[in-house]
Amino acid sequence: MLSSTASCLCKAVTITAREINPKFTVCHCDSCRGWGGGPFFAVQCGQNVSIDGEDKVKMYASSPWASRGFCSECGTHLFFKFKQSGDYNMPIGIFEKLDGLVMDMQYFSDQRPDYYCFSNQTKELSRAEIMSYFAKKL
Prior knowledge:
- The protein has two helices and eleven strands.
- The protein is mostly beta strands.
- It has one domain: glutathione-dependent formaldehyde- activating enzyme (gfa), CATH 3.90.1590.
- The strands form two sheets. It has an eight-stranded mixed sheet. It has a three-stranded antiparallel sheet with strand order 1-2-5, with no helix packed on it.
- A hairpin with a 6-residue loop joins strand 1 and strand 2 (14-20).
- It is globular.
């Protein structure tokens, strides 16, 4: 596991994640692509996360199983938080430094548009597989 600090563009929010999984994921769902203008490159951070400037974090309930957090000052995307477990997935790009990352999984792979692809060999889950997985958890 890795540990690192992240912040939004304006530095109003600083996040320390102490249990970052170096195997990162990429989500191609419509919500993630609409949220960030492209796929969501995320590291799984578990629950061992502290947030300074929490009063500047705005939450949006984006699905029955998760919410998205962003800075209310500058709009930086900060995290995707699972409602049931409290686990955080955070954008790779907001961290100061993360070494040794490996792309491990692509979610909603059947929703990946034709205008991009990755050469990385990863596991892939389709929309149906993801929906089935979360239906069991709700």
